[in-house]
Amino acid sequence: MFVPKILFCLFIKCSINIKPQIVKLETCLQQANISYATQQSPIWSNLTAPYNLRLSYTPALVVLPTTDQQVGQSISCSAKESFKVQPKGGGHSYTSFSLGGQDGIAVVSMENFNEIEVDQTTFIAKIGAGQRLGNVALGIHEQGKRGLPHGTCPGVGIGGHATHGGYGYDSRLWGLALDTIFGLDVVFANGSIIYANETQNPDVYFAMRGAGDSFGIVTNFYMQTNEAPETVTYFTANLNETLKSIDQLTSAFLRTQDFVINSPLLTKNISFGFYTDNSGALSITGMCMFCNTTFFKETVFPALTEGVTPFPGSINITDLSWLDTLQVLAGADPLAEPLDGYNIHDTFYAKSVVTKEAEPLTEEAVRNFWEYIISKTNINTPPSFSIINLYGAQDSQINVPSPSASAYSDRESLWVFQNYGYTANHALPWDSRIIPLIDGLNAAIGNSQPTGNFSAYSKYIDPELTATQAAEQYFGPKTHDKLLRLKTELDPGFVFWNPQAVRNSGLLSLPPDELEDYQANYE
């Protein structure tokens, strides 16, 4: 969507109490002929409505560039007037960091960068950073029946998804979304534009794949697509009955964990997750790509679910086309999504736990997690759910890359828990009981297995973490400290900022007596 510059200029004269630096920023954008929106603009609410209604921020303005050069000029104008900058792709941030994470940030909307083009020789897809996952899936499938690993929510923007991870049910076979990035067009804090891949600007290539919001704005991704399967073995089953016995539930989960670690029946083609909530629901959903459905149904699935009690008639194992599989996983949301005016919202708090292949969950941790779930079932507590996805085990392509290959360095994961609490009607007002409820889910695991070496997944970002806690949990000391050194080189003015951005924490590997001196020099 291109909005004429003159439309916004008209609103400047009607505004009152505009801070002088905002006026200067607007003047700079006008001189560069770049469109932008202010609070008086008719499209302001569409541009700034957060996905998570609990965390609403008011940007200084929202810039709407149409070219790489305009993105660079937008950043330069903002930095010149001392504004921090954040890009906004799909606007699906759990913490509203795409709106800045605090008031007064200059937001650069990428919705005009929406190209999807697959090279028919290399099958590398050029994808604009303003696109959404559902549109990407449809677009690349139309151009040669190609596929990419990505999440199930079609309205999520590719920009934030692919620069921080990008898990999908196809990731055990194809890797994370960021693992398919062959190259990127990136705009730096000084407004310069570069191309980065494994050999050109490799430090940028490293940083943008896992910590992109701290280092630059991607305008285009170049992603290596895969041949999509004609059909997929999709499976699901209702396991509610198993929740009635904590002993059976604990034993069944441990059997499943043993299966994924040791059974030759598990291949990288198989991926699945458990869903449970405090209304008494428990289910398993997954898919097997390029599989023999009969063999999966008769041999693999019974071994995978040994010990659980599927509700009679609830087991569904069927062949679906690739696009039908994506649509079933998306639920009620259509794959085709608008680039602007996205109108899906929730009011929630989420956390994550990443467990390790080398430290499988203990019986105590499993039991305490499920006991906590059951203790909150059908009582007067806010609604919540947990999704437990298998990331690692047995040749999972998520764990194949070296931890030093990208800023996403968590290449030893086994299970990833997303723990999520929300208001009863998904809207405001906020229910203050939700945060301690979700904290309790994480604590049930962490306190039971203190040697578990647990980490967290930054796409299920937790706004309650301090910058140092976020650095420790999302990156770990080695990766974070490399990113911190790159940040001081690539963004010395700390233009790209949010509350948990790289450089809000000092070097994690420094002893306490040296940390204060470091912060004094670099903050």
TrEMBL record:
Keywords: FAD, Flavoprotein, Oxidoreductase. Residues 55-228 form the FAD-binding PCMH-type domain. Pfam families: BBE (PF08031), FAD_binding_4 (PF01565). Coiled coil: none annotated. One of its GO terms (molecular function) is oxidoreductase activity. It comes from the Eukaryota. SUPFAM superfamilies: FAD-binding/transporter-associated domain-like. PANTHER family: BINDING OXIDOREDUCTASE, PUTATIVE (AFU_ORTHOLOGUE AFUA_1G17690)-RELATED, FAD-BINDING PCMH-TYPE DOMAIN-CONTAINING PROTEIN. This is FAD-binding protein. It comes from Glarea lozoyensis (strain ATCC 20868 / MF5171).
